[in-house]
Amino acid sequence: MNHDDHDDALLPRLRVIEEQPLGARAEAYAQVHDELTRRLEGGDSVAAATVPGDQGAHA
C-alpha cells in the first residue's frame, strides 16, 4: 500500500470505528494512533539518514 492508499483508507476506517461501541472504539483508535506513530517515526528516520546536498558521490 502506498502513501495515497493509506490516506484514502483512513477516513472510511474512522467512520467504521465511530459506529462501534465505546470500548471497541477506544481500542481501534489506539491501534490507529500506533500505526500513524510508526509511519511518522519511520519517515523521520529516513529523513534523518539523508544529508542535504549529499548525492552519494564522494571524491
Automatic annotation (TrEMBL):
It comes from the Bacteria. This is Uncharacterized protein. It comes from Herbiconiux sp. A18JL235. The lineage of its organism: Bacteria, Bacillati, Actinomycetota, Actinomycetes, Micrococcales.
